């Protein structure tokens, strides 16, 4: 007993500290245990739009907005782009063109993310936003382009040139007429006949192609300022010169059978 009294004289705060420790211990025991942590919520699944999405970010690309005047049809019956009311040609990959007719129609407002031509009124489209919140992107998929029909009656396009027609790479390849029919030429023929393909020039052409709800387009075989002033040109899908593949003469090498 004397030992405890001596200890309390030397350390007068010891009883207080001891009491405080007991109080804290009791308080901790009385506190209800914390509820177990909830597991982290799984990330929300991306909403599918039903269209392929590119792995690339197109947001840094310039955006061109305008009203669709018409599709740019192809001789095979599909679409390679749009022409806006201000004359800008929106040029698409074949894959993007396959989807664009289901996204917009003439008279709709569109916003196009793509590369603008340096001097030409063209845009190489990588993404197109339609008027109803839908978007299509060039996802880099590869599909088979339909061949131009080579049978059936010729299609005649006759009228006035609205604008030169350009390829995805900015080459002159024909003309868009006032009624939005499209006349296609090879790049070499278009360069040679460039004076005929300027806005306001009369133009007459005959060739194979397609005509339908998406428009009229031909691979020109004969072309000129009028029906009486035409010249024959090689159509863009013309077969290579020489024997037809699979024929008896196809495997023959010219000069191989000749003897000195």
- CATH fourth-tier homologous superfamily of the domain at 155-232: Nucleic acid-binding proteins
Can you summarize the main beta sheet?
5 strands, mixed, barrel
Q: Enumerate the spans where pLDDT stays under 50 for 5 or more consecutive residues.
A: 13-30, 41-49
CATH topology grouping of the domain at 155-232: OB fold (Dihydrolipoamide Acetyltransferase, E2P)
Instruction: Give, in order, the helices and strands.
Output: HHEEEHEEEEEEHEEE
Name of the CATH architecture of the domain at 155-232:
Beta Barrel
Instruction: Give a count of the beta strands, DSSP E runs of length 2 or more.
Output: 12
Principal-axes geometry comes out as globular
Number of helices: 4
Classification by helices and strands: alpha+beta
- Cα-atom radius of gyration: 37 Å
**Amino- and carboxy-terminal Cα gap:** 136 Å
The CATH class assignment of the domain at 155-232 is: Mainly Beta
- Describe the strand arrangement of the main beta sheet, using strand numbers: 1-2-3-5-4
Mean pLDDT: 80
Q: Proportion of β residues?
A: 25-35%
What share of residues is helical? 10-25%
Describe the structure.
The protein has helices at 2-10, 14-30, 94-100, 187-192, and strands at residues 63-73, 79-84, 89-91, 109-116, 122-129, 135-137, 155-166, 172-177, 182-184, 202-212, 215-224, 231-232. It has 260 residues and is of the alpha+beta class. Among the domains are: 63-137, Nucleic acid-binding proteins (OB fold (Dihydrolipoamide Acetyltransferase, E2P)), CATH 2.40.50.140; 155-232, OB fold (Dihydrolipoamide Acetyltransferase, E2P) (Beta Barrel). The chain has a 5-stranded mixed β-barrel. A 5-stranded mixed beta barrel has the order 7-8-9-11-10. A hairpin with a 5-residue loop joins strand 5 and strand 6 (135-137). The longest helix has 17 residues, at 14-30. The model is unreliable at 13-30 and 41-49 (pLDDT under 50).
């Amino acid at each position: 007993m004397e030992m405890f009294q001596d200890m309390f004289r030397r350390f007068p705060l010891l009883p207080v500290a001891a009491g405080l420790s007991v109080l804290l211990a009791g308080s901790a025991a009385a506190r209800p245990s914390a509820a177990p942590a909830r597991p982290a919520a799984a990330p929300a699944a991306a909403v599918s739009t039903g269209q392929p999405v590119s792995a690339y970010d197109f947001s840094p690309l310039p955006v061109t907005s305008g009203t669709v005047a018409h599709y740019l049809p192809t001789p095979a019956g599909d679409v390679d782009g749009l022409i806006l009311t201000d004359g800008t040609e929106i040029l698409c990959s074949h894959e993007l063109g396959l989807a664009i007719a289901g996204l917009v129609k003439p008279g709709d407002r569109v916003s196009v993310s793509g590369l603008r031509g340096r001097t030409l009124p063209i845009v190489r489209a990588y993404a197109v936003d339609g008027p109803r919140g839908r978007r299509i992107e060039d996802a880099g998929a590869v599909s088979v382009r339909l061949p131009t029909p080579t049978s059936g009656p010729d299609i005649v396009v006759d009228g006035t040139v609205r604008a030169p027609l350009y390829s995805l790479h900015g080459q002159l390849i024909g003309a868009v007429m006032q009624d939005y029919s499209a006349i296609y030429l090879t790049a070499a023929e278009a360069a040679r006949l460039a004076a005929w393909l300027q806005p306001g020039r009369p133009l007459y052409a005959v060739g194979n192609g397609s005509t339908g709800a998406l428009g009229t387009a031909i691979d020109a075989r004969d072309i000129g300022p009028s029906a009486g002033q035409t010249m024959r040109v090689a159509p863009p899908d013309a077969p290579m010169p020489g024997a037809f593949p699979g024929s008896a003469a196809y495997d023959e090498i010219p000069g191989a059978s000749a003897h000195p």
